[in-house]
Amino acid sequence: MSEFEALSGEAASTDVALIIGAGPGISASCARLFTQNGMRVAVAARYPDKAVLRALEASHGVHLYARDAADPTAVARLFQEVAQDLGAPTLVVHNIDGRVDGIFRKRIVEAEPHLVLETLRNAAFSAFLVGQQAAKMMGNNRVAANGGKGTIIFTNASAALKGFPTSGAFAMACHAKSGLAQSMARELMPQGIHVANVPIDAAIGWTQEDGSRAHRLAGTTVDDNMADPDRIAETYLQLHRQHRSTWAFEVVLRPWSEKW
After folding, report:
1. Smallest Cα–Cα separation from 42: which of 84, 97, 9?
2. pTM for this prediction
3. How far is CA 244 from CA 10, 105, 146, 155, 239, in A?
4. 61 lies in which domain range?
């Protein structure tokens, strides 16, 4: 057994995960998996009173925080409170795509400038604020068994890889997050902080009350044609546990049947 394998259980018991942006998909799956692996978990959202989040609070002991991730003061206060309540985060997941009502599927001549700016603010600017605070705090963390001080993961979309028609604002935001993540990785990985950008090229089908997996726009999953958020969470956990000799930066996730 390697030193990393021997100490991974001990390291997990002291891990604090902070998930920014919350819903029934990736964030909920991450919160469940991380707690099951011994982590103390905090979830921050503008509106944390969602039923799925209250259920996670009751069933898994997840700590909930009401925060606007695009507000610099609110983000700084969030990290301070999480550190006080649970300990300094060792895993931070930014899981906000940032799109606003009225901006998606708009031709370039139709997109309203204030909605474009709001999309950039929600997605890319919030990613910067979260990444900045995470870097500040993780720099003081002790070195874990895998040789790192912490992990910052940015959930992204296929729009980070190519700009689709009628999706200019969203493509701008996704490309901006990719650029931010790449710059942060080059700066922070030599300092022991793992940064990963994860474009998900798929509709995400999460488990509904009737047990089926479905997406509100794409319908019900058939033969694993949609990404399973539980499997995405497994990838995020594996990224966090990677040894520093083999840190991955960009991991693109898509179903086996996705055309790309």
Report:
1. 84
2. 0.92
3. 18, 40, 6, 21, 10
4. 3-246
